[in-house]
Design goal:
The protein is α/β, with parallel strands linked by helices. It has ten helices and eleven strands. The chain starts with a strand and ends in an 8-residue tail after the last helix. The structure holds NADPH dihydro-nicotinamide-adenine-dinucleotide phosphate.
Length: about 300
């Protein structure tokens, strides 16, 4: 039997429409226009596409959008200076520094310099720590989008076995922490995990955030499980063209899972929609106005 396909594009469009409505109300009721600044250093083609999409989405939601493009050889001091300027700019409520940064720039130092209140990526250690202990925090966009789709599909996640493959600070760890917050029994797997297929087969919820094309095979998936594929991998085809695939072998997993996100069209669009929602949340918290119920 074929799984239900979780349509991240449609889900994201609905969320973006809700965010746009909230922005209109914030402007009318409080004279507040949320603003997002995106900093892009270097000429990585994938990052350029992400940043362009983020800016278009920000403007479409009625928010202020500022894009700062820096050369590949930009110095750390120059990036820090820009972050400081954005921290002090009252019209900017969200700051996103697109990763990866060029090798001469220390990513950790740049993330650490972002005002935690404007850290809409949720990567600052203050936000990571607050989220881990259950306090209000800016939560990373990709895991937030995954949780929203899971709750929409499954309702209450309490007691479900969740396996997260990948333990990065930007996806795997916050994903596991959010699932724990939803009362799942969580296993985090990584490159040193023994018998990964068996661990994956124990999952009611299987989240793949690895960065290895189609690594997770159909027979690693428990029948009826909900599979969230975060991976985005570009592979070369025999025709000379390229194609995006996830970390899950979709054609196999779709025959076993109860529901699955496709790549593209699954997690990716939700990441951008959650970035907009985080920017509205940040703007409200900074301005001291009630936060709209967006999520
Ligand atoms: P990282 O490279 O930072 O982390 C990858 C993780 O996968 C690591 O924890 C690593 O383990 C683990 N891993 C690697 N190989 C294996 C293996 N053979 N078996 C088990 N675990 C393994 O990647 P990210 O978390 O940043 O991203 C993961 C994927 O998600 C990428 O494809 C990325 O493009 C995509 N992504 C998509 C987003 C979206 O919006 N759709 C947003 C962000 C990322 P170890 O720690 O032991 O090295």
């Amino acid at each position: 039997m074929s799984a239900n396909i979780i349509d991240g594009r449609e889900f994201a469009l609905k969320l973006r429409a809700r965010v746009a409505k909230q922005v209109t109300e914030l402007k009318a009721d409080h004279g507040l226009m949320p603003g997002l600044a995106v900093v892009l250093a270097g000429d990585d083609p994938a990052s350029q596409v992400y940043v362009r999409n983020k800016n278009v989405a920000t403007r479409e939601a009625g928010m202020k959008s500022e894009e700062i493009r820096l050369a590949d050889d930009v110095s750390q001091a120059d990036v820090l200076e820009i972050v400081e300027r954005l921290n002090a700019d009252p019209s900017i409520h969200g700051i996103l520094v697109q990763l990866p940064l060029p090798s001469q720039v220390d990513e950790a130092a740049i993330i650490d310099a972002i005002d935690p209140a404007k850290d809409v990526d949720g990567f600052h250690v203050i936000n990571t720590g607050r989220q881990a202990v259950g306090l209000d925090a800016m939560v990373p966009c990709t895991p937030t989008g995954c949780i929203m789709m899971l709750k929409d599909r499954l309702g209450d996640l309490s007691g479900l076995n969740a396996v997260v493959v990948g333990r990065s600070n930007i996806v795997g760890k916050p994903m596991a922490s959010l699932l724990l917050g939803e009362n799942c029994t969580v296993t985090i797997a990584h490159s040193r995990t023994k018998d990964l297929p068996a661990i994956c087969r124990s999952a009611d919820i299987l989240v793949a955030a690895v960065g290895r094309p189609e690594m997770i095979k159909g027979d690693w998936v428990k029948p009826g499980a909900t599979v969230i594929d975060v991976g985005v991998n570009r592979i070369a085809l025999d025709t000379g063209k390229t194609r995006l695939v996830g970390d899950v072998c979709f054609s196999e997993a779709v025959e076993v899972a109860g529901a699955i996100t496709p790549v593209p069209g699954g997690v990716g669009p939700m990441t951008i929609a959650c970035l907009l929602a985080n920017t509205v949340t940040a703007a409200c918290r900074i301005a001291g106005v009630p936060e709209p119920e967006i999520k």
